[in-house]
Design goal:
Layout (H helix, E strand, L loop, with lengths): L2 H12 L10 E4 L4 H13 L4 E5 H6 L10 E5 L5 E14 L5 H4 L8 H19 L8 E12 L1
Parallel strand pairs: 1-3
Antiparallel strand pairs: 2-5, 3-4, 4-5
């Protein structure tokens, strides 16, 4: 099923009209293989309700800053639509000030130390890839979301 067909089914199911509904684009978890599939599985199960991106990655790549209310079609690794999410909040925080109640929404980690270690590795990888310095107080864009439609 194409993204367009999936979007039309969502509109029909929710009684929205094409020109009135918010559509912000497609979202694919960039990690390939098991990592990307794990992220998608966590999202579909309801365990993952947040995404974290270094602010510098967004700025260097000249990406649009996410905004509360945006609606995305989430695709799997085969570019098949799997669900639709809506951003419920967007926060920018230093990575060392992100509280556990927010970090746990990433859906993977059992405790704050595990999440911090994972985030530190992710931040280092993004810094190497994009050409910025990862610091203990690097700003992170925290996107909170809810699934509003599933296949």
């Amino acid at each position: 099923m194409t993204t367009s067909e999936f979007w039309k089914k969502y509109l029909e199911a929710t009684g929205q009209k094409e020109g009135e509904a918010v559509y912000s684009g497609e979202l694919v978890f960039e990690d390939t293989g098991m990592t990307g599939q794990t992220q998608l599985s966590l999202l579909l199960s309801g365990a993952k309700t947040a995404m974290f991106t270094p602010l510098e990655t967004i700025e260097i790549n000249m990406e649009k800053m996410p905004v509360t209310g945006e609606v995305y079609v989430v695709l799997d690794s085969k570019e098949e639509p799997r669900c639709i999410i809506e951003l419920t909040d967007v926060k920018i925080l230093p990575v060392n000030e992100i509280p556990w109640d927010l970090a746990r929404r990433d859906g993977e980690d059992e405790n704050m130390l595990d999440w911090q270690n994972k985030m530190e590795n992710f931040l280092d990888e993004e810094a190497d890839l994009c050409g910025f310095e990862a610091l203990p107080d690097s700003k992170i864009v925290c996107e909170l979301f809810k699934v509003i439609y599933k296949k």
